Amino acid sequence: MKRTSTYADILNTGYRLFAEHGFEKTSMTMIAKEVNISKPALYYHFLSKEVIIDVLFEEICKSIDFANFFNIQHYTKDNFEEKLIADGLHVITKQKVDDNYSRIMKQYQALGYRNPKYSQKLLEVLNGFTTGFVELLRHGASIGAIHDKDTLVRAQMLNMIIDSIDNFISYGFEYNYADIWTKAVLTIVKGEDT
């Protein structure tokens, strides 16, 4: 079993505590106690709670980058639709199994109203999905898996659907997200009008 570093333990603990108690109510003392280190040791790794919040935000944004879920090189003419469905379902499943993700992302969205660096980074992540879907659809067209028609609009639709599913999950709606994503992909990829 691989032992995690104190730095990673602090981030993982901060992630959980921030999700459970919020940024305001989580203290450095709470984090140090949970990690089982002294406060000076915690301050050795992170100068402040705000630094933990910032580093954690960067790590979360990296983890939800489009390329982490959709590897364009793995898409072929024979597997394009099925792979797009499966990769999107992986995004959805990842969120559903991590209750802390929705809670902490709501807090970062709220921070975005006060501090534009958070809202700008979240917009970059969303735009990254649109750009990624455009590249993926263009790849699909170049290999003859799909038609090269309304690529940008279809990419935006895929992004809007996956982001809406993300939001609905965070609100606790129990919809059949797998069927919704599958139907959306088949409709959008085949270029059918809805």
TrEMBL record:
Q: Which residues bind DNA?
A: 27-46
Source taxon at top rank: Bacteria
> What PROSITE patterns has UniProt attached to this entry?
HTH_TETR_1, HTH_TETR_2
Q: Which Pfam families match?
A: TetR_N
Q: List, alphabetically, the InterPro entries matched.
A: DNA-bd_HTH_TetR-type_CS, Homeodomain-like_sf, HTH-type_Tx_Regulator, HTH_TetR
Keyword annotations from UniProtKB, A to Z: DNA-binding
Classification via Gene3D superfamilies: Tetracycline Repressor, domain 2 (1.10.357.10)
Q: Which residues form the HTH tetR-type domain?
A: 4-64
Name of the protein this chain belongs to: TetR/AcrR family transcriptional regulator
Q: What lineage is on file? A: Bacteria, Bacillati, Bacillota, Bacilli, Bacillales
